[in-house]
């Protein structure tokens, strides 16, 4: 489908949430570690950390294999959700995350979140972020047939924004984010605040990498989000 006139001018700034805007990755690791341990699986925290960013079923398959995922993904996901829920009231936005989103909205970007979170978890993340006025839409992995690293979550975000890939930027903290953004044809910005090394993000498709939202905001004019598309 050819771009519309609106797509010719609309710019989308698409953001992952967990580990990118809100400091949750290591909380997810702890919750998944305990859920797996309770089910009799001894999985190192480092391996779990590398899998954060995948949807629950894909994460279980990545860690335990396809057969175990078919048998146990639903129960493990439910256990993780219960364990992670204990942190909802204490989630904290990463430094300058909310200010970054508000600045981009003021600059004319359509800010869209691309997250697999929903329900109470999404409400807790939005409360921690405290930038609802800057967010024009949210795309969840639940809304598409495949989550990251497939491109569909990013493509869904672009559809919500009404923006073409070549005028859009995706910011994320995992290799799965960078792969999804690259496959969707957008410029990819990686951030290190989720704990994944710079070289891994670059190898997965990051065009540029910053320490976190605060560093991106401080260098906004020189970043892909400061340049016209």
From TrEMBL:
<dbReference type="GO" id="GO:0005829">
    <property type="term" value="C:cytosol"/>
</dbReference>
<dbReference type="InterPro" id="IPR023214">
    <property type="entry name" value="HAD_sf"/>
</dbReference>
<dbReference type="GO" id="GO:0008967">
    <property type="term" value="F:phosphoglycolate phosphatase activity"/>
</dbReference>
<dbReference type="InterPro" id="IPR050155">
    <property type="entry name" value="HAD-like_hydrolase_sf"/>
</dbReference>
<keyword id="KW-0378">Hydrolase</keyword>
<protein>
    <submittedName>
        <fullName>HAD family hydrolase</fullName>
    </submittedName>
</protein>
<dbReference type="InterPro" id="IPR036412">
    <property type="entry name" value="HAD-like_sf"/>
</dbReference>
<dbReference type="GO" id="GO:0006281">
    <property type="term" value="P:DNA repair"/>
</dbReference>
<dbReference type="Pfam" id="PF00702">
    <property type="entry name" value="Hydrolase"/>
</dbReference>
<dbReference type="InterPro" id="IPR006439">
    <property type="entry name" value="HAD-SF_hydro_IA"/>
</dbReference>
<dbReference type="InterPro" id="IPR023198">
    <property type="entry name" value="PGP-like_dom2"/>
</dbReference>
